[in-house]
Structure formats: structure tokens, C-alpha cells
Design a protein that fits this description.
Layout (H helix, E strand, L loop, with lengths): L1 E2 L6 E2 L5 E3 L13 E2 L1 H7 L5 E2 L2 E2 L8 E2 L6 E2 L2 E2 L9 H5 L5 E5 L5 H13 L1 H6 L1 E5 L2 H17 L18 E9 L5 E9 L14 H9 L2 E6 L13 H6 L7 H17 L10 E5 L6 H4 L15 E2 H17 L3 H10 L3 E5 L24 H9 L5 E2 L2
Parallel strand pairs: 10-14, 14-15, 15-17, 16-18
Antiparallel strand pairs: 1-2, 3-6, 3-9, 4-5, 7-8, 11-12, 12-13
Helix pairs in contact: 3-5, 8-11, 10-11
This protein binds guanosine-5'-triphosphate, magnesium ion (MG) and zinc ion (2 copies).
Pfam families: DO-GTPase2
Organism: Nonomuraea glycinis
InterPro entries: DO-GTPase2 (IPR045528), P-loop_NTPase (IPR027417)
């Protein structure tokens, strides 16, 4: 089974459909016509494209029954989105990213992708390849240009209600194994949800399918909105935090509970999918935390998961949550998940100044940690002890 990374419907390989290549130059082919299915899925006008067809036993290519032209353009039979060849060959794991409103999800996505394409990709000897043109385009216009180009903070994500936005789909590929080398891939399907989309009682079909397709989940928790953390924050952060509701602790917790319940629909016992739970914006805490050093030590770029470091960070974040009277989150996770881990990270690395990033620039801190842990869990990365 392949999960369509756009509509998250499960597709049996025998049901993968094709799109005619249409005519090009002197080669005859079908005329473009409005694709109502794709239009309805994307929530806009139906784009004019050559028709979609299905064949008895789909392989890599098929002949269009109408014009007999051969095509390798494979599409999802449900939403008609293109399924990249690499994705069909190696569907990988789907990682879902969730968090309350304003928790820092969009900023995290922007910075994580940037880091994976540069520093971390190099360290891990991994390639990160966008699976489709829309991913390239959207990453540029919605994430990279404002944040890295203009140095402005990202706008609040619009609710997907009515018009679902395409997720960003990347294939992270590594060669693993010393003796028998093989390539292993992780499909990062980053669906930039608006915080409120996860709070709605009636969550959209698409969000539900997204979560139920997930092989791993990353939760972002905003320390500025944890009421018990107030004392640990910079004064300016205290003023900026707590703007969302009166009972803020429950807000961060709500999303965790809500999403967990949805994931649970698949089974009754504890959940077996790994959950990475990260405090975002930890740059806001720095001053008060100098003494507790695990979180503030830089990670050794070893190209492996440092298990000692992992345990130290996990312990420290756990201690912080308990200190902030947010230990409930930790207890809840331990009851619900077989396998969860706690993290602290900062996408920006420094407190923003108004609507722009700090003058010192974007200096991400430990943004890759949850991903390294997931790669380790999926046996795509070695663990080492010092
Ligand atoms: N100090 C600090 N602030 C951050 C960081 N990342 C995000 N922020 C702040 O948090 C705000 C919200 O970040 P977003 O990434 O837009 O949050 P979101 O979760 O996508 O929000 P919605 O789309 O509204 O659900 C930003 O405007 C920043 O002010 C960080 O690493 N450090
Ligand atoms: Mg957002
Ligand atoms: Zn689909
Ligand atoms: Zn045709």
C-alpha cells in the first residue's frame, strides 16, 4: 500500500492511475481538459490537463487508451495529484507535525528544511529531495523568502477549511548498513496546519487522514504559553506569552490529547508510533537555565545519534515540565505512548525583534534533534555512546 502524500488516501499499487502526456510538439496526444477531481481537491478552478486513466496492471508506464501515447506520469486515483517515481518506488514513513496555535510550527518547518538541505544533510550524508514542483515553489514563496530573504516572521497560517493547502513533501534518503548497504528513505510530509485546525471539534477529513496515515508524530509545545514556565522566561517573553486564552496550559495540552485520541482510533492499547515532543522557542529561557547545561550544550556533529546526550536532554526537559507544573503532559504521554521522547529546540535561535528576526540572524538550535531520534527509531541512523 502507498499512502498518497497529498490526500492521504491509501492506494493499492494495482490502483495507481496515469495521466496522459497530452500532445507536445508534433507528437499527437489528448487535448487538455478541466480536471474536476484535482480542482475539487485543491479547492480552486479545475486545472486544464490531459485526462487521467487507469489500466489493468499498472507498472511504471502505460499506454493512454484514447491516444495510445505512452506515459510515466502516475497519479493518485483519489485526488489526481502526481505521485513522484521515487515516492512510488520507496514510499517511506510519514511524519506529522502538530502543535497549538502560534507554537512555532511554520517557522520550524522553514528552518528544518533549510538545515536539512545544508548543514545536517551534509553531516548525515543524506539527500533531501522535494517530491514535486509545488513543494519547491511553496517552500520558496511561503517559507524561505520571507524568513531567509526578508528576515520577517511568517504570517499565521490560514485555516485549511475550504481550501486545503498542499503539504510539503520531501524524500530524505540515506545509505545505511555497513556490510549490506541499502538506501532507506523517510518521507517528510509536512502539512503546515493552522493551530486552530487541530482544535476544531469537527476536524476536516483531510486532517484526520493525515494523522491516521502518520508513522511518527512531532508535537511542538510553546513554553511561552505554559503558565508554569513564566518565571523561567525573559521579561519580554512573559509579556508576549499568554495571549491566546486564559487557561493556556490546557491549550498546549489540548492539542496533545486531541491528536492522541485521533491516532488512537487505530488501536486500543498504548500507541506504538514514536512521538517526539519538543519545547519550541527555548531561546526565550536561556538566562534562567544557564546552570542546567544539557540543553545548552551544542550537539556533537557525529553523523549518529548520541544516546548519552539524548538521555540528558530528555531528563532535563522532563524536569522542566515538572518544575512548571506541566508534568501532566509527561504523565499523559507515558500512559499513551510506548515510545516518546522529549526535546528542546529553537528555530530562530534568538528572540525576534517585533516582526523581524533578531539582528544576529537565524541561528537554529537543536532543530534536527527530533528528526535524528526518529531516524534512529526507524533504523536509518546509528546510536553511539561516548
Ligand atoms: N523566541 C522565539 N520565537 C519564535 C521561534 N519560532 C517562532 N517564534 C515566534 O512564534 C510566532 C509564531 O510562529 P509560527 O511559526 O508562525 O507558529 P505556528 O505554529 O505556525 O502558528 P499558526 O500557524 O498560527 O498555528 C512567531 O511569529 C515568532 O514570534 C523561536 O525559535 N524563538
Ligand atoms: Mg503556521
Ligand atoms: Zn491523493
Ligand atoms: Zn491520451
Amino acid at each position: 500500500m502507498i499512502t498518497c502524500p497529498y490526500c492521504f488516501v491509501k492506494v493499492a499499487p494495482a490502483r495507481i492511475a496515469f495521466r496522459c502526456l497530452g500532445k507536445s510538439g508534433r507528437t499527437e496526444g489528448c487535448e487538455p481538459r478541466p480536471d474536476e477531481v484535482l480542482g475539487a481537491f485543491r479547492g480552486g478552478a479545475a486545472p486544464a490537463l490531459p485526462p487521467v486513466f487507469s489500466v489493468r496492471r499498472p507498472g511504471r508506464r502505460a499506454l493512454c487508451p484514447a491516444c495510445s501515447r505512452e506515459t510515466a506520469w502516475r497519479v493518485c486515483p483519489s485526488c489526481h495529484s502526481r505521485l513522484a517515481t521515487e515516492y512510488c518506488a520507496n514510499p517511506g514513513k510519514i511524519v506529522a507535525l502538530v502543535g497549538a496555535k502560534h507554537a512555532g510550527k511554520s517557522t520550524y518547518i522553514a528552518v528544518l528544511i533549510h538545515e536539512l538541505m545544508n548543514r545536517i544533510g551534509e553531516e548525515l550524508n543524506a539527500s533531501l529531495v522535494p517530491c514535486d514542483d509545488r513543494t519547491i515553489e511553496r517552500y520558496k514563496t511561503d517559507f524561505a523568502r520571507p524568513l531567509y530573504g526578508d528576515h520577517t516572521l511568517l504570517d499565521a497560517t490560514q485555516s485549511a477549511e475550504g481550501a486545503p493547502r498542499d503539504p510539503l513533501v520531501y524524500l530524505l534518503t540515506r545509505t545505511v548498513g555497513r556490510m549490506r548497504r541499502r538506501t532507506a528513505s523517510l518521507t517528510l510530509v509536512l502539512f503546515d496546519t493552522a493551530g486552530e485546525d487541530l482544535r476544531e471539534r469537527e476536524m476536516s477529513e483531510l486532517h484526520l487522514r493525515y494523522l491516521s496515515a502518520a508513522d511518527a508524530v512531532i508535537f511542538l509545545l510553546d513554553p511561552l504559553e505554559l503558565s508554569g514556565a513564566q518565571a523561567a522566561l525573559h521579561t519580554s517573553a512573559r509579556e508576549r506569552g499568554g495571549t491566546l486564552a486564559n487557561d493556556l496550559m490546557s491549550d498546549q495540552m489540548d492539542v496533545v490529547v486531541r491528536v492522541t485520541e485521533l491516532l488512537r482510533k487505530r488501536n486500543n492499547g498504548r500507541l506504538s508510533i514514536p512521538a517526539a515532543v519538543a519545547l519550541s522557542k527555548i531561546d526565550e529561557l536561556r538566562a534562567s537555565m544557564e546552570r542546567q547545561s544539557a540543553l545548552h550544550r551544542t550537539r556533537d556533529p557525529a553523523g549518529a545519534l548520541d544516546l548519552d546526550d539524548r538521555e540528558a536532554v530528555d531528563e532535563q526537559v522532563r524536569a522542566l515540565l515538572h518544575q512548571w507544573q506541566a508534568g501532566m503532559i509527561d504523565r499523559y504521554l507515558s500512559q499513551q505512548y510506548d515510545d516518546y521522547a522529549l526535546f528542546g529546540l529553537s528555530a530562530l535561535g534568538d528572540v525576534p525583534e517585533g516582526k523581524t528576526v533578531a539582528r544576529s540572524g537565524i541561528r537554529p538550535y537543536r532543530v534536527e534533534d527530533p528528526l535524528l531520534w526518529l531516524l534512529y527509531r526507524f533504523k536509518m541512523l546509528d546510536g553511539i555512546r561516548r
